[in-house]
Protein: Ketol-acid reductoisomerase (NADP(+))
Amino acid sequence: MAELFYETDAELATIQGRRVAVLGYGSQGHAHALCLRDSGVDVRVGLPAESASRAKAEEEGLRVVTPAEAAAEADLIMVLVPDPVQGRVYAESVREHLEPGDALFFGHGFSVRFGYVEPPADVDVCLVAPKGPGHLVRRQFTAGKGVPCIAAVEQDATGKAFDLALSYAKAIGGTRAGVIRTTFAEETETDLFGEQAVLCGGTSALVKAGFETLVEAGYQPEIAYFEVLNELKLIVDLMYEGGLEKMRWSISETAEWGDYVTGPRLVTDETKAEMRKVLAEIKDGSFAATWMAEYESGKKRYEQFRAADADGLLATTGTRLRKLMSWVDPA
Ligand code: NAD
Ligand code: MG
Ligand code: MG
Ligand code: MG
Ligand code: MG
Ligand code: MG
Structure:
């Protein structure tokens, strides 16, 4: 069973005694910076001089400096820039400003797990990752609630790194909901596997294959779109609220019977064998290396994949149909 931590397990005073730099002001960065500020923490945001996010942070009353200035001022640096640029930001703006006893924090373990950031031995290295997008983190926090977080320590130079991570989690509302202890390796490997095998890769491929099967058999694309993509939200909402049990309670008996007898014909032992290969490529770093090479060379294949799907019948059908649903696509 996972180890859980709540409000009384964490001291807000610990993080209130630090000078915190939040690098990046995107989905996670804005939520962390604002919640830390509202929790009485000395926080500055680090963004490049030309960054469009600067104005947004300043409008909220946050002090914005460059990433290097933020790292120099701070003794706790939270890295919330996109994962593929973290290695560069660390080398250019953070490394030289780390002093013994400082702390380097992340919202995802990618850069540390795969060696793109190699912190010196005398700093704490921690992970605090809310299990939800930044806007939900901020909304829950301002409502007096919180989004559950996971927290990990990769390197405990001070002997108090986990207490510091819990204190940080408390300042962004995490301990109001609960914080689960993990490791950088577990967080990184399960996050990548989940998004590739199930959430993004698996689901997109399933939707596309189902849509193509219906359209190739002569059914109208609009009808196929509703059945295999649009209705997915209703099913996922039910799973989110009450697991597979609530979804199966809500659907028809016919749908539930089809679930049992047809699902395993599609996701077979062969599919699971492939999932194990996907996981192995995540663990041995080859997925990360391929993605970093793609990113560094200008994301050409990435853009080709995106363009191919954007021109497809599934996309064009969806653009048309969403206009019929005013609550989805307001005119
Ligand atoms: P994002 O793309 O929303 O925002 C990135 C921010 O970094 C932007 O403000 C951008 O202007 C800034 N930035 C880009 N290059 C920069 C540079 N060179 N120097 C300084 N700032 C730069 O990113 P995000 O989704 O908030 O992700 C940040 C981290 O949080 C990642 O490690 C990600 O894996 C993790 N995370 C994200 C979510 C999520 O819901 N989006 C959830 C959990 C963890
Ligand atoms: Mg410093
Ligand atoms: Mg994830
Ligand atoms: Mg991810
Ligand atoms: Mg139906
Ligand atoms: Mg039922």
The mean pLDDT is 97. The two ends are 48 Å apart (CA to CA).
